[in-house]
Structure to design on (631 residues):
């Protein structure tokens, strides 16, 4: 009977077993990761993949069975993404992120970080000066919901009380920490994403943030609580404000790449900047998590000004060393 | 497919617009073009709707479970712990649901899997975790910002500002409508594409003359020259679909066209199978000699 069969039929009959083998290996690998494959199976896969690719080329030129060609295309696509896909396991990926990728991404953003920092500082100083001059400005900078009673109408004693809340139990601490972390991280991600619109909305968010900071500080300085308030703020603020500055920088880098792509095409520039900024942003989320922990636990448990300042200084120095300590370039 | 093509289009260099089939060249390092198809708007929207359904459905169920536990125990100390868990779970869900699924080897969320889509790096390289993070962080301005403007209520100047904001954020939402590769903002910021990558099963070969009842029918070369590749593919679809009425109609058309004078009591399916196998054999052997007959109008 064999001579009655089409060439394309014989072509398929000879290779079908290999295709099915590749398919079953792929299904196994996709379901449970590479770990599920045995050693010999792992070695077999690229060979089968190249076979399938060559089958696809041949099938396209000799077979008019469209379901066969479609099957081979789908099979080759699946195995292509498996063979050439990233296969680092999660622990390795995380280790690489913390050891190299994150600091490198932050270092690459140094110019944007400086710009972001400058905007925040200017906004803080302007708000500070304005509120010192006329306390009514306070309401323009601070959302009453966030102020929760810490406004110019409050008495000095009640303001002092907010700085040194006596908490007898652990109640309220972890909840506050979780809330602050999710809230801040959401804002940071938002600032990053807004950068795409040519930097301006990100800058506006930074100005708002800095303005709020300046207004609060001005209020406390006007009651001679400046040093205490700074300690209260900076114990976690060293981490949190740094993270927000970095989030702004990440947003700027995308917006800048889109607006001024230079020699590259706009699409390539955006993709490159986006990926680098995304690495920095993943790190910002980690930083904000740390800040949330410090804010929720440390700030309420540590009541001594000196201790607060020490923690602030140590964390800030730690972050700076971690990010900017010169490293050997990646191999 | 290539980024270069996109930029060319964005720069407006290409004046003449052909209707876009969505197929993109995707050449592997081995030099074979995999021909990927960019995901259609409907598929991508459905995938997103499914994902949000799963995500918010899951969050809703989770919230109810938390409330149920609180109500059942009425323990004050639990309130705190559950509140923390709830906050963290919703945060992770909102920001990392897409990331966690797309960073896996299959590079697709459940919604995308159902619609047969996956995320690929536009340059054909490997899809890295930072790209996946970037494309999903952008959802913040593509979904949540417009949603916030849409849900905001205000009067006077506020209303005007909200309207302006909604229009402005609408640009982000509608972004995929204005580029050839249907990339959204996140795809652009990460250099990714969403393509069709359905899992196909290998179907039986219709020209397998041992298994399909078609022996005994012979066609003259003239009868086989009535059609080309396009018609062959339509015939394949009709036989595979197996709809009786369609097969009957097609069989009638073919009998008339080729002036079939053989036995008239053959079942339609047998006739179509036989004709398909014979036609494919004829077209394939001509193809081996370098002539691929596009369709029935292709007479050369």
């Amino acid at each position: 009977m064999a001579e009655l069969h089409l060439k394309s039929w014989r072509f398929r009959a000879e290779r079908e077993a290999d295709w099915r083998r590749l398919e079953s290996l792929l299904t196994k690998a996709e379901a449970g990761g590479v770990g599920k494959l045995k050693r010999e199976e792992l070695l077999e896969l690229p060979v089968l993949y190249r076979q399938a690719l060559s089958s696809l080329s041949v099938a396209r030129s000799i077979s008019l069975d469209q379901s066969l060609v479609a099957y081979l295309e789908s099979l080759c696509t699946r195995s292509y993404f498996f063979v050439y896909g990233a296969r680092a396991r999660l622990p390795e990926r995380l280790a690489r992120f913390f050891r190299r990728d994150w600091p490198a991404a932050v270092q690459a953003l140094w110019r944007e970080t400086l710009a972001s920092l400058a905007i925040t500082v200017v906004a803080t100083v302007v708000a500070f000066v304005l509120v010192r001059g006329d306390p009514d400005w306070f309401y323009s900078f601070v959302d009453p919901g966030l102020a929760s009673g810490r406004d110019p109408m409050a008495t000095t004693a009640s303001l002092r009380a907010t700085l040194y809340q006596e908490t007898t139990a652990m109640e309220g601490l972890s909840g506050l920490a979780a809330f602050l972390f999710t809230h801040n991280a959401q804002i940071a991600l938002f600032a990053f994403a807004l950068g795409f619109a040519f930097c301006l909305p990100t800058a506006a968010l930074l100005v708002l943030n800095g303005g709020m900071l300046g207004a609060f500080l001005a209020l406390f300085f006007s009651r001679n609580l400046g040093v205490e308030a700074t300690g209260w703020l900076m114990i976690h603020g060293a981490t949190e404000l740094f993270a927000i500055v970095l989030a702004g920088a990440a947003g700027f880098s995308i917006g800048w790449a889109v607006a001024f792509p230079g020699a590259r095409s706009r699409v390539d520039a955006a993709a490159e900047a986006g990926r680098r900024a995304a690495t920095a942003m993943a790190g910002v989320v980690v930083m904000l998590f740390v800040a949330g922990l410090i804010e929720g636990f440390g700030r309420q448990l540590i009541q001594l000004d000196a201790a607060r300042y020490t923690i602030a200084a140590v964390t800030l120095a730690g972050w700076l060393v971690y990010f900017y300590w010169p490293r050997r370039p990646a191999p | 497919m290539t980024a270069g093509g996109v930029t060319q289009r964005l720069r407006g260099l290409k004046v003449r617009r052909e209707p876009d089939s969505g197929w993109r060249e995707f050449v592997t390092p081995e030099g074979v073009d995999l021909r990927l198809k960019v995901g259609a708007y409907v598929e991508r929207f459905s995938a997103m709707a499914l994902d949000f359904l799963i995500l918010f459905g899951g969050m809703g169920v989770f919230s109810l479970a938390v409330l149920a536990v609180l109500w059942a125990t009425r323990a004050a100390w639990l309130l705190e712990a559950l509140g923390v868990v709830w906050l963290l779970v919703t945060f992770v869900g909102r920001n990392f649901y897409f990331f966690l699924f797309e960073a896996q080897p299959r590079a697709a969320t459940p919604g995308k899997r159902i619609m047969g889509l996956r995320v690929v790096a536009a340059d054909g390289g490997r899809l890295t975790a930072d790209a996946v993070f970037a494309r999903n962080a952008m959802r913040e301005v593509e979904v949540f910002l417009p949603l916030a403007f849409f849900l905001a209520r205000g009067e006077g100047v506020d209303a005007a500002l909200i309207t302006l904001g909604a229009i402005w954020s609408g640009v982000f939402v509608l972004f995929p409508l204005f580029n050839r590769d249907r990339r959204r903002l996140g795809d652009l910021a990460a250099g990714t594409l969403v393509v069709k990558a359905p899992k196909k099963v290998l179907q039986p070969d219709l020209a397998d003359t041992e298994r399909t009842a078609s022996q005994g029918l012979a066609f003259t070369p003239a009868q086989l020259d009535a059609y080309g590749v396009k018609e062959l593919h339509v015939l394949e679809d009709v036989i595979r679909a197996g709809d009786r009425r369609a097969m009957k109609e097609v069989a009638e058309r073919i009998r008339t066209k080729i002036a079939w004078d053989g036995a008239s009591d053959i079942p339609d399916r047998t006739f179509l199978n036989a004709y398909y196998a014979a036609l494919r054999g004829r077209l394939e052997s001509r193809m081996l000699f370098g002539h691929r007959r596009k369709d029935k109008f292709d007479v050369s």
